[in-house]
Amino acid sequence: MPELKYIAAAIAILAVMPSAIFEGVIAAHTVDGISRNPEAYSKLRTTMILGCALTETTAIYSLLVAILILFVG
Fold first, then answer.
1. 14-18: which pairs have CB atoms within 8 A and are 24 or more residues apart?
2. Which positions ≥6 away from 51 have C-beta within 8 Å?
3. What is this structure's pTM?
4. Which is it for the CA torsion 30, 36, 41, 46, positive or negative?
5. Domain span at residue 36?
6. What is the pLDDT of residues 3-37, one digit of tens each?
7. What is the CATH number of the domain that holds 47?
8. Nearest Cα to 18, choosing from 55, 50, 52, 49?
């Protein structure tokens, strides 16, 4: 049943979509915060980068799982 591993890999990749959406939300709220309070730029930028990095790990892990399913499973 080799078709099932392709379906499983596609399901694992579905975790990338919320990651991309929430990275956009993080960036949008950061820009909104900077426009309201320009003095807080450095704090907001640092927090945004940390939030995007933590959100991006979800996408990287799901990509890793999909690759493992395709080539090892």
1. 14/62, 15/58, 15/59, 15/61, 15/62, 16/58, 16/59, 16/62, 16/63, 18/58
2. 26
3. 0.74
4. negative
5. 2-71
6. 898 998 888 888 888 888 999 999 999 999 999 99
7. 1.20.20.10
8. 55
Please list, residue by residue across 43-69, b when 16 or more beta carbons sit within 10 angstroms of its beta carbon and e when fewer do: ebeeebeebbeebeebbeebeebbeeb
Structure tokens at 47: 């927090």
Q: How many residues does the chain have?
A: 73
Domain count, the chain: 1
CA–CA distance from 55 to each of 8, 15, 34, 59, 67 (Å)? 22, 11, 21, 7, 19
Question: Taking a C-beta distance cutoff of 8 angstroms, is the pair 59, 2 a contact?
Answer: no
